Amino acid sequence: MIPRSIPGGLFLIVRRSLAQHSLSTAVTALAAALGCGLVIAVFSVRQQAHDAFVGGPVGFDAVLGARGSQLQLVLNTVFHLDTSPGNIPWSMYEDVRKDPQVALAIPYAVGDNYKGWRIVGTTPELFTDFEYRKGQRFKAEPGGRFFDPKLREAVIGSAVADGARMSVGTMFHPEHGVTEGEHDHDEEYVVVGVLEPTNSPSDRVVWIPIEGIFRMGGHVLHGKGEAYRAKPGEAIPDEAKEVSAVMLKFRNSMAGFMLDQRINRQGKEATLAWPIAKSLSEFFDRMGWLDRVLALVAYLVMFVAAGSILAALYNTMNERRRDFAILRSLGAKRRVVFSAIVLESASIGAIGAALGWLVNLGILAGAAMVVRSQTGVVLDIWKYHPAAALAPAGMLLLAAAAGIVPALKAYRTPVAENLAPQS
Amino acid sequence: MTMDGPAPLLEIRNLRKSYVSPEGEASPVIDIAEFRLAAGEHVALRGGSGSGKTTLLNLIAGILVPDSGEIVVEGENVAALSESKRDALRARKIGYIFQTFNLLQGFTALENVALGMLFGGGADGARARHLLERVGLGDRMNYRPRQLSVGQQQRVAIARAVANRPKLVLADEPTGNLDARNAAEALDLIREVCRESGAALLIVSHDPDVLGRFERQVDLAAINRAAAGVAP
Q1: Could you tell me the residue range of the domain that residue A319 belongs to?
Q2: Which of A113, B19, B35, B163 could make an SS bond with B116 (beta carbons 3.0 to 4.6 A apart)?
């Protein structure tokens, strides 16, 4: 392709030079891609994680649990992470359930697992009344159903079904504790339903009747203060029962405000995590320093990449002096030679920026996989973040700026000295 | 030396150029009182090593700036122009054939010729191809210089020099790197393509075979007072 104009000629010169120095072009472009991709990823992962955790499909307005950290309560009940801060008496659940401002109150009892998948004892209202996302309730996959609260039956999330290779009819013994390693309980449960995927932390839970947790061998209830062990065939008095948390849905936001006043400010027995998003938001805010450190590292990689472009181009200037002199002898002005080097530098930055998107997608995909496997939270890797435009633009500008020093060297190349021996 | 008739294409008056040694001493290289070249005229300048012939051509091309004097090309005093205007004048009006060809190694023969046209108003692919066919390289257009023989490289350099239809072609020992047969062919070719495009040709050489083919020969030592005493 013959260039018809000077800009076309510049692109030809740049293309040939990039090809001629393909190794250094590849290395410097990869460095730029890494820097650019890291910057996009740091901001995107933070944003996606924030959006997924804070604005994800929680479905509840508040969590009532033992006195302690609201964040721990939310992490334990909504995301099934961390340990439970403790229990609250069953009466507290009954009180809040009867509150006319409370639309839905679902008790959770935790403390067991199966192969590392957490077991949560709850009531059937979780399946019949709770919407994990507006208008969406849990559904059992064909061939399955929800558990009977009086039987040793389990309903499992889709991730559990895949991860633990369980299906309807699978028998299992719950294991004590929230992580693997402790003893198995004697009680045997049967899977009666597998939930359709919800792309929420609930996919990673084994749901059993809350009565089952109360009656699990070795479990001691302290609802009355003194220890109580459930006996087969004997009803458990409500005073003895206790729950890890109560998940709440309010009829209006005033209810949350009033409960917050009553439980958090005036009471001393329990904690109300409300609004749930606020606790998580504070958590992300507290982790802001980590974002800044990561962003700083990413910026440094970008600057190092720009430096490597500068060094790589500068090192080629001596071998290319004759080419510049020839171009000048053909009538190319100094600024044409200068522009060619800046354009070449910017081109490396542009290649790096383009590859940076791929690096970002790779990092995001990896992060999304880890987050999903660890928490069940789904990150949307395709969601746009302004960093996806600003970082490549910044890389391009940095690369172009990096080209200025070698371009000045090219600009100052004496023509006659570099053309041929004098005679 | 004086010439009668219409205004010359190239006129040099009181041209002086010195180089400063590392010790700070100025060594005169060019000191020419007067030299003229008519439009379309072919002239051979005889000059040996150190006679300042490359410096003179670089001064005429505007690559170097004289200490004093005038170099008038088609009415424009090259010595008085800014660097940018000298570049533009060189791109539009002057073709340059170097002893070492000075082809751009990363580019094909066709691209070398096209780049020779680019800065003088725009490349014309058809003309570049035509010129390469004219110099016998129709089947080597997409070859890089290192894939061509020395004689073929010289032909590319010739095509590039006349690509922009210059008024003046400067040739610095254009056959210095060629064997006798290729040298004769290259010289004939240079003169033919210059004639076809109406360009004047100023060639510098110390080769008697080259000089002997020109009707007008000028001894550089005779007109360059700074080179007096330098053996031709």
Answers
A1: 6-54+287-419
A2: B163
